[in-house]
Amino acid sequence: MATLDDVHAAVAAQTSVVAAVTTLLQQLSAQLSAAIANADDPAKLQELVDEINANANSLANAVAANTPGTPGSTQPAPAPEPAAPPAT
Fold first, then answer.
1. Residue 6 lies inside a defined structural domain of this protein
2. Which of 74, 65, 76, 59 has the alpha carbon at shortest distance from 18?
3. Is 73 within the bounds of a domain?
4. How many CB atoms within 10 Å of residue 74?
């Protein structure tokens, strides 16, 4: 049975995740702005594209690893719903 302390801990963990994703999105925005500014330098532009793709892959992998029931997840899949009794 969950306690109030458990709820507080869950909210704190969720808040940390939201803050991390917010920071990542802000960094991606800055990287896109830099890519636009360096559009005339193909090597610099490719470097930024590669960095953006790496960040996007990291985020996708983190979401998949922490989504119940997905391949590679560290979270257990939800228990199946019990079968409904046959209609009579």
1. no
2. 59
3. no
4. 8
- Looking at the 3D structure of the chain, how many domains does it have? 1
Q: pTM of the entire structure?
A: 0.47
CA–CA distance, 63 with 24 (Å, rounded to integer): 13
Q: What is the mean pLDDT of residues 12-38?
A: 80
Other Cβ atoms less than 10 A from the Cβ of 64: the count is 12
Q: Is residue 17 part of a domain?
A: no
Phi, psi of 59, deg, nearest 5:
-65, -45
Copy the structure tokens of residue 70.
Answer: 């997905």
pLDDT band per the 50, 70, 90 thresholds, residue 75: low
Mean pLDDT, residues 51-56: 82
